[in-house]
Structures are given as C-alpha cells and as structure tokens.
TrEMBL record:
PANTHER family registered for this protein in UniProt: MOTA_TOLQ_EXBB PROTON CHANNEL DOMAIN-CONTAINING PROTEIN, PROTEIN TOLQ
Similarity-based family: Belongs to the exbB/tolQ family.
Transmembrane spans: 12-31, 106-126, 146-171
Taxonomy, superkingdom: Bacteria
Subcellular location: Cell membrane; Membrane
InterPro entries in alphabetical order: ExbB/TolQ_transport, MotA_ExbB_proton_chnl
Topology of this chain in the membrane: Multi-pass membrane protein
Pfam families: MotA_ExbB
Domain MotA/TolQ/ExbB proton channel span(s) in chain numbering: 68-187
Name of the protein: MotA/TolQ/ExbB proton channel family protein
Keywords: Cell membrane, Membrane, Protein transport, Transmembrane, Transmembrane helix, Transport
Length: 204
C-alpha cells in the first residue's frame, strides 16, 4: 500500500487527507443522525401526560429542550403555549429552521470532498503525463521504465480520486435524504403537539 501511495506522486497527500476527513464526517453523521437521538418515539405522549398532570414547569421544559433536537423544537412551542396557536407555531418554526440547519452540519464539506477529489486525481494524472512527455523529450522512447513511472502516477491518482469521491457522493446524498426525512417527521410531531395543546386534538 505504501508503494502504491508513493508511486501516486505528490497529489496523493491531499487525496488521502480528503479521505480521512470524509470518513470522519461519515462516522460522525451516522452517530448524530440516528433516529432515536433526533426523534424520541415517546416524547409527545410524555409531554401530553405532563400537561394533563399539570407538571409542565420551566425546569421540565428545560429538560425536554436538552433531550433531543425534537425536544428543542417542542420546548419552544411549550414556552409559548399560553399565547395562542399562531404564536406557538411561529416559535416552533423559528427553532425548527435552526435545528434543520444544524442537522446539515458537515454535509457541505462532504459534498465538496466528493466534487474536489476527482479533480485532484485529474490534476495528478496531468502531472504524471507531463512527466512522461518531459522524460521523452530528454531521453527519447528508449527506456520503458522511465515512461511507466509517469503513467503509473497518472493512473494511481485517477483511481484514488474516484475511490474517495464515489462513497463521499453516495453518503452525501444519503445523509441529505435522511435529514429531509427527520425534518418532515419533526414538523409532523410539532403540529401534533400544537393541535393537542390548543384543543384541536384530544389524545395522542
């Protein structure tokens, strides 16, 4: 493996760096975007139970806010539940936009890696081909070993760039879709809570 990296030339360094960053982002997003961490299944029924038992004080709402991204959104509505349906909805929507933005954290960087690494591979390919032609200009076509070094560098850089870019692009699209699904579900849960608190729905 070290020989392959060495033969790939100087452009392998930024490609390897991109691969490390991409793997770190993918691992972090898999952990952070777990459904149970974003959307606790029993949160709305729990809040409704507290509401019926008249236990929704500030300390309880603070704990709900810190429990999950969904809890943060619902807590914004709970703090404004006495101000009517529209105020409650607008406060939920405002915090919801902030939470949605935070769920997309690092996805731009992952998308950039997916776009940049093929270009880095192409740049390494061009550098290798330039070296081949420079060697031809100096020594002619007589030594195949001299030419093979530049061609090898070109092919290794291209393959390495694509090897990093393809999974990065796949996971970038996957996480974007996952965030969209979480946001839609959080909107549904938030509207459900608003209906319950404002008397438009009787139970959970």
């Amino acid at each position: 493996m070290f020989e392959v990296i060495k033969n790939g030339g100087w452009m392998m360094a930024p490609i390897i760096l991109c691969s490390i960053v991409a793997m770190a982002i993918i691992g972090e997003r898999f952990w952070s975007l777990q459904r149970k961490r974003i959307l606790p299944a029993d949160l709305v029924p729990y809040i409704w139970q507290l509401h019926r038992e008249n236990k929704l004080d500030e300390a309880t709402i603070r704990r709900i806010k810190l429990s999950s991204p969904l809890g943060r959104i619902l807590a914004a509505g709970l703090l404004n539940r006495k101000h009517g349906r529209e105020i409650m909805k607008s406060s939920i929507e405002e915090v919801g936009r902030q939470v949605a933005h935070e769920l997309e954290r690092y996805l731009n960087a992952l998308g950039s890696i997916a776009s940049i690494t093929p270009l880095l591979g192409l740049l390494g390919t061009v550098d290798g081909i330039i070296r081949v032609f420079s060697d031809i200009a100096v020594g002619g076509m007589g030594d195949p070993a001299v030419l093979s070094g530049g061609i090898s560098e070109a092919l290794i850089c291209t393959a390495s760039g694509l090897t990093v870019a393809i999974p990065s692009l796949f996971f970038h699209r996957y996480f974007e879709r996952l965030v969209d699904d979480h946001v839609v579900r959080m909107e549904e849960e938030s509207l459900r809570l608003v209906d319950i608190m404002q008397g438009a729905r009787e139970d959970v």
